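can u do me a favor
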């Protein structure tokens, strides 16, 4: 997950804040960061956008770069990849021109994440590598860990599991060495997910549990939702269906409250598939519908996920004994697939990873 800028609220300033904020881009950024910490993305976007406008008007290029990156980070989390790409590119150009290496590395990391989420793994790997080199040259351990995580994700997506595991482990060690609690939580989450996909559920569960505890202690709702989702998936793999549905539903409620469309879409898809496996057809199909409707046109992973699962879903539906329920489910499946086709026709994404 993206690290939110940390801000300590000032309880003293209660009057005149709005007027002062209109004159102070620094305060606008702090207010935006405060709302982001509280997972209030609409308000965070509002303040960051105002800050960007002020920085642009006064010709403060460094401030403009920072505000652009914060806006890009939020758009990335919301699955709005075109907007994220635009702001990261603007940020990168400014830092390149004024010579800010750390800012340049952060922008490169953001652009790499956009490419990764769109399935453009070669471009993402090159950007993560450039980012890693900058942070290594600077002796920036936390930045190095962030870049290593990006590279590990690419290796995992390419099914290069040995390389991925080594990089995830190095990332965890770096965060532990520097005492970065939230970074450690993210690294634990990555390792847990890795073991889960290898069906090593007994290894994944304690890692997810530790990750959940850290995010709960620091009040990170996004991280908590992610850990709950991981625990749910691991429990589902173990056949603990009741626990899995409870954990996943709690995670989905948090994502829905925060408004993270991508996570709502993909988790709805997972829940729908689980309900289908368990024979709860009426609960499954509305969730499939939600997953498809909320899936971003620029979300390569969501598009590929539906395409890969459609045949299995159709097989499950065909096996339904009750004719009326089976026919209704088949009609909804056809409708969902038509929606998917409309999305893919509008999308400019390639239909296979590079």
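np, heres the sequence
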């Amino acid at each position: 997950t993206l690290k939110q800028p940390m801000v300590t609220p000032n309880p003293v300033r209660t009057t005149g804040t709005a007027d002062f904020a209109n004159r102070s881009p620094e305060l606008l950024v702090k207010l935006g960061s405060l709302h982001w910490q509280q997972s209030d993305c609409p308000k965070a976007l509002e303040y960051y956008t105002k800050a960007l406008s002020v920085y642009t008007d006064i010709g403060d290029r460094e401030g403009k770069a920072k505000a652009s990156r914060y806006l890009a980070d939020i758009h990335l989390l919301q699955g709005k990849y075109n907007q994220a790409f635009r702001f990261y590119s603007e940020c990168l150009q400014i830092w390149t021109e004024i010579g800010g290496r750390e800012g340049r590395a952060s922008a490169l990391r953001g652009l790499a994440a956009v490419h990764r989420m769109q399935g453009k793994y070669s471009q993402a790997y090159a950007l993560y590598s450039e980012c890693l080199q900058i942070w290594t040259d600077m002796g920036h351990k936390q930045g190095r860990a962030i870049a290593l995580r990006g590279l590990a994700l690419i290796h995992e997506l390419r099914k290069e599991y040995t390389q991925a595991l080594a990089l995830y482990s190095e990332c965890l060690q770096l965060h532990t060495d520097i005492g970065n609690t939230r970074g450690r939580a993210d690294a634990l989450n990555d390792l847990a997910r890795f073991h889960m996909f290898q069906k090593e559920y007994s290894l994944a569960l304690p890692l997810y549990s530790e990750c959940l505890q850290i995010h709960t202690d620091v009040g990170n709702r996004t991280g908590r939702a992610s850990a709950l989702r991981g625990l749910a998936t691991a429990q589902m793999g173990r056949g603990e269906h009741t626990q899995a549905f409870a954990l996943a539903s709690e995670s989905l409620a948090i994502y829905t409250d925060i408004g993270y469309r991508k996570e709502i879409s993909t988790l709805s898809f997972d829940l729908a598939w689980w309900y289908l496996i368990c024979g709860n057809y009426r609960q499954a199909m509305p969730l499939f519908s939600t997953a498809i409707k909320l899936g971003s046109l620029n979300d390569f992973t969501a598009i590929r996920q539906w395409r890969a699962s459609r045949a299995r879903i159709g097989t499950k539906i065909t096996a339904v004994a009750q004719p009326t329920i089976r026919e209704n489910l088949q009609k909804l499946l056809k409708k969902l697939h038509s929606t998917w086709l409309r999305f893919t026709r509008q999308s400019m994404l390639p239909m296979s990873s590079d």
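The CA atoms of residues 236 and 320 lie 22 Å apart. hope that helps!!
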